[in-house]
């Protein structure tokens, strides 16, 4: 199972963290500090895996952003690498050629997308289309809510004028 | 909402994110976050916060927490937000609580009720949000509260809900296996689900169940094999393809399960031969996902009772991995080799050079993996080389965790394969010297046992040799500074036990050394204790051998010091030493026999040597001893236990809803009978565990007693419910529309209503858009570079709004037309590229083409006073939000085309679900998608241009220090 997902920038800034196993606030900070130290200093041609405290951390760099996932000893690293890529592809479709900036300012949306891909530390849906459809359904609800809110406030504004 | 920035949040929030982004050091970042925390603390408790604002505060809390700071002051507000009726707010609330709270947090009890309600919601998105929260938040104690609802959701019409429900049950299984023990048949049933997503999800709990008990699932081997076969034959919908590979993630899960089922079972394994053979047939290392599946196939082959042919294929793939240039594949190859050599050690031989290369590689990860392989293939012939390598590596690293691991491996190998005593002792010394503090205490104790016991049972001479070589080497090492405490303990113990055994060293020499050790480590009580006891042993052996003993002066001072020590243990040892010195040889020999640490000490548990004393006392009239179990007062211990257990089960919190109060006031007056009736009446949820646990006792009247102790949640619920919450509710203008949106019926009926709603809303948006161009022009006149932008913006947005109107008018024709056109598009597109929409034709506006000449130069105009950001805001927000909708707009429809085209002739996997799913999509979304379709996807200058524009409004500029911020992640 995936224990946590970290998105760290080249400069070591945290862009997103999702914990599927219980870690206290203190442990989280320690994990991030340790891992960013290890991962950011690794050369480009080395493995995308790091053994860490009896777990394995699979990471991949996209532009300036490192996507890291921590998994158990028995898990398949190459599969996790592809899950990361799957996530990035979905982000890319959603944001339209996603860049780090999108994630910085829309981290909550990235969380919502992640929640449709992983659940309880497992991959819950491997079809990009279905994930996209679900996120779309949620977003369209948001849109409708916004539209109705603005139309209603418009009407109220006109009535109270 | 005038202050809204480009991403839908307030300027204030964007500024915060920006300033964090620009922080030069962690300290500066911390300072900014601290002031934000103070700010939020103050603001969040203000009365009458509009819900929208509150939502943003919650997101800001998430941000603060994400950066590693404590936002616990705001948790309660996130919890409150989950109670909200609007899905928008509810979803944010759930997101925040799942990020904030661990499963054992106190606040979870406040969410359980909401989750229960939401699981029953008729809007499937609400149910999905609740299920996501269930996976994170529900702990062992609260599982019974939601279990019936979650089980019910397994039959939900929406696949997404079913899938999440299965994953929730999987989580429950991980938390408390017994809680879902009665539901295993449900998992088996869901394995045959028509939807591949649901089937794939079911593999997760099944994997865990099979890992725990493979024998009960042997009957499924054939099913798993046939599913895997169908997957590889591309019988699943094409949407599950990943990089041209059919449903690889499902394949991997299946292979993992087959590996468990075939382990040590020839019959089960034979079923898998054909399908596994097929896996290796198409073996090329071009795509990563194929490699992942290949690797998993190797793991499966190495686990099952495999045929030689399969083993050959697996070895072939492994050697290809090892020969690859990619470090990742080499790593996987080393791992695979480690698995295969368990079956056939000879496989390793042809890869010797590759393994050595990996061992020499500068990549630490690869090196460690290779050490793991070496560890697995160590024999007595190669142990010296391997262990020496390991120790060298161990000395060179700082990672304590790995140091511990590798040192214990060294020790294990040394104990198992040591070619000579000399080498063994030297190896142990090295390991202890460099990793002594990290070595498990057990290992040290093991060594202390190993030295007296020796390797060979009947070779006393060799054992003696081992001991004296240990003593010699320890005496050499003992003077070195900074020896780890554990190592010193071993040294002291061995010197005490065997220091004078071969008469090579005098007692005074060894005791002198031991005194030095104790002196050199004044703060380490354990080492001092070991040293003193060692000294005592040496003197005792001397006395027993009839030699005269002189206490060395430094020894005397040590004993004096320790007898005044704060540690009672040290004091006692010092006094014992003094006492032993005063005894005669015979007594000393019986308390401190030489080389007897391995002799069994007989313990007389029945204290038979006291029998005479007891007898005497009884004769004198003492009362005989009565065993504890027979004493009165505790007459029935098993009964008592049963009661405790029973009580604990009924005292637990109850989460099912109480009955509605009777119309008369009877319930107030007679609470006890009501409680009793509650217990007696069979509840409509038959799976509720409490009922299952004690069906017999339910009928007993005495049960009403315990029920009165229960926490009555209905009274509490009112406190946290609507009344106290309403003060924070916003003005009606905000909450009303959200409420209407939330209901699912709305979605279905909306076809008629929405066209009006859309008209109105888009009108309102249009007016906004019309205002902003004026501002834009103003900006353009102030900052020259804006002009091309202003030309472009209005055209594209107008474009959209006109389309909206046409969509509203031609509402009935539009969707069918869209299906037809996107179907064509779906056929034309190559699977890797994001589909281009045919409706896209009108999009490249003149403004666009001019903009693409030199986007950066023109955008420069945006830099400068922050006023600019607010000017362009509304226009960009409009187009940006439209973008988001459009991105996925055509996917459902083209999905329909894809699945239809892909329909396989088999019945085993029902493809109609995909079709009906697409058809289920409500009309408004469909029409909305066609409205905003003309926005491109993929790498596209316009996209990045917009992003730059938005970014600069917020104030983020691609600076020299961080130019990558804007680069496409997939670029």
From TrEMBL, chain A:
A GO CC term assigned to this protein in UniProt: cytosol
MF-aspect GO terms: clathrin adaptor activity
Domain AP complex mu/sigma subunit: 1-139
Gene Ontology BP, a term: cytosolic transport
Topology of this chain in the membrane: Peripheral membrane protein
Record carries keyword ATP-binding: no
Keyword Glycosyltransferase: no
Task performed by this protein: Subunit of clathrin-associated adaptor protein complex 1 that plays a role in protein sorting at the trans-Golgi network and early endosomes (TGN/EE). The AP complexes mediate the recruitment of clathrin to membranes and the recognition of sorting signals within the cytosolic tails of transmembrane cargo molecules.
Official protein name in the record: AP complex subunit sigma
Lineage summary: Eukaryota, Viridiplantae, Streptophyta, Embryophyta, Tracheophyta
UniProtKB/TrEMBL annotation, chain B:
Biased composition regions of type Low complexity, renumbered to the chain: 723-737
One GO-annotated biological process of the protein: vesicle-mediated transport
Parts forming coiled coils: none
Gene3D superfamilies, alphabetized: Leucine-rich Repeat Variant
GO cellular component entries: AP-4 adaptor complex; endomembrane system
Biased segments, Polar residues type: 813-824
Record flagged with keyword Membrane: yes
Residues in Clathrin/coatomer adaptor adaptin-like N-terminal domain copies: 38-581
Primary localization: membrane
Subunit structure: Adaptor protein complex 4 (AP-4) is a heterotetramer composed of two large adaptins, a medium adaptin and a small adaptin.
Record-stated family: Belongs to the adaptor complexes large subunit family.
Protein name per its UniProtKB record: AP-4 complex subunit epsilon
Organism: Protea cynaroides
